[in-house]
Design brief:
The chain is α/β, with parallel strands linked by helices. It has helices at about 15-30, 50-65, 80-90, 105-115, 130-140, 185-195, 235-240, 265-275, 280-290, 290-320, 340-355, 380-394; strands at about 35-40, 100-105, 125, 145-150, 170, 200-205, 230-235, 250, 255-260, 260, 325, 330-335, 355, 360, 370-375. Helix 5 (about 130-140) links the parallel strand 3 and strand 4.
């Protein structure tokens, strides 16, 4: 008899963001006249920049021409896009070969697929609160997951635990959901920890474009020793508004080896098996992001989101609510008022002022009593939501 993957029964009944969508839709159905201010799920609101749009249009025209038509793309990405990404890293003082950059249909996909490089018996260390996929994908694979607890006392930025060892370590900086970001000294501690025990760090750098503080690295490869212990997973979703367009990239250094096996070679072979490559049209649009014009234009959208974050932080400052993030990050992580739980606060805000955020409990046990707001909304909606929050919580 066929045996299903019983690890699915170990997951929560519904993925966090689907629960948010459902509860919001139920409220909207009951109150069709209400305008809901959505600052929960981290979807962007600004359109793609003009340079990207032009590149996408040209790529579509190419597909209508016998001379310029493209079919299957290289599994690991178009050479020109891989080179463009490697050139982008030079801004941070990081030198990569184009063959260390692998183009994907998004960071979310690679966060799951990359686990195929690791044996099922490896132990995973996840810092809580955490993006749910880190935990769920490893539960589905049957791995043991260790949870490293954090809190306001350490700014949600724990250092390596002396009493625990792991084979796979998830780091996200700037962090989702807390917005906290590691400095160089803190990341160096994690790199030394991983190298010391032969572990591999999966470094989620989806929000690096929001970093303003020069003390905060944009890439883990700015840290000495990282190329022998880390894989970096990146996304254009928040960087360039590709949430509906879907493209990311993963950096696997040639120096990363364990037990005589090279991970760069393994991942190249994995891509040959698991994908026919990202479409020509999307890769042309992505390549435009890394042009001088593209990089300048995406910063205008990022500036809008950063201003949204400042508006929200000012509101929480006025009502005296503790929070972190907002600086170097599009997320603000706050302590729920009056001892409320996250889901209780969610219902309170939705029913009283029609503002939607994310309960901290959705990101693990350490998220209890906390709440996440996203700065990716429309600026006018963000200002209105901030005013409503001030009046309600004053």
């Amino acid at each position: 008899m066929l045996k299903p993957n019983m690890h699915y029964t170990e997951l929560k009944d519904s993925y966090l963001f689907n629960t948010i969508y459902r509860k919001t839709a139920e409220y909207q159905k009951a109150h069709p006249e209400a305008k809901i201010y959505r600052m929960g799920v981290g979807d962007v609101s600004r359109p793609l920049c003009q340079t990207v749009i032009q590149a996408l249009h040209q790529a579509v025209e190419d597909q209508a021409s016998m001379r310029n038509f493209h079919g299957y793309m290289p599994e690991s990405g178009a050479p020109e896009l891989r080179r463009a990404v490697s050139e982008y890293y030079k801004r941070f003082g990081v030198h990569l070969g184009a063959d260390e950059v692998f183009v994907s249909s998004g960071a979310c996909d690679d966060l799951g697929d990359i686990l195929e490089l690791f044996d099922q018996d490896n132990t995973v260390l996840v810092i809580e609160p955490a993006y749910p996929e880190y935990v769920d994908t490893n539960i589905l694979a049957g791995r043991k997951v260790l949870h490293l607890e954090t809190g306001a006392d350490n700014g949600f930025l724990p250092l390596p635990p002396a009493d625990r060892k792991a084979d796979i370590i998830y780091l996200c900086s700037p962090n989702n959901p807390t917005g906290a970001a590691y400095d160089r000294e803190q990341l160096k501690a994690w790199v030394d920890y991983a190298n010391g025990q032969g572990a591999v760090i999966l470094f989620d750098a989806a929000y690096e474009v929001f970093i303003e503080d020069p003390a905060i690295p944009h890439s883990i490869f700015e840290i000495e020793g990282a190329k022998t212990c880390a894989i970096e997973i990146c996304s254009l979703s928040k960087t360039a508004g590709f949430t509906g367009t879907r493209l990311g990239y993963t950096v696997v250094p040639r120096l990363l080896e364990r037990m005589g096996v090279n991970f760069n070679t393994m991942w190249a072979r994995n891509r040959e098996t698991r994908t026919n490559g990202v479409s020509y049209i999307l890769q042309k649009g992505a390549a435009a992001v890394f042009t001088p014009e593209g990089l300048e234009q995406i910063q205008r959208n990022i500036a809008v989101y950063k201003e949204n974050a400042r508006v929200l932080m000012a509101a929480f400052d006025r009502v005296g609510i503790w929070y972190c993030g907002g600086k170097n990050s599009p997320y603000i992580w706050l302590k729920c008022p009056e001892g409320m739980g996250g889901w209780e606060f969610f219902d309170y805000l939705l029913n009283e002022i029609q503002v939607v955020g994310i309960p901290g409990e959705g990101f693990g046990e350490c998220g209890k009593g906390y709440f996440r707001f996203s700065a990716f909304g429309d600026p006018d909606d963000t200002k209105e939501a901030a005013d409503r929050l001030c009046k309600l919580l004053r």
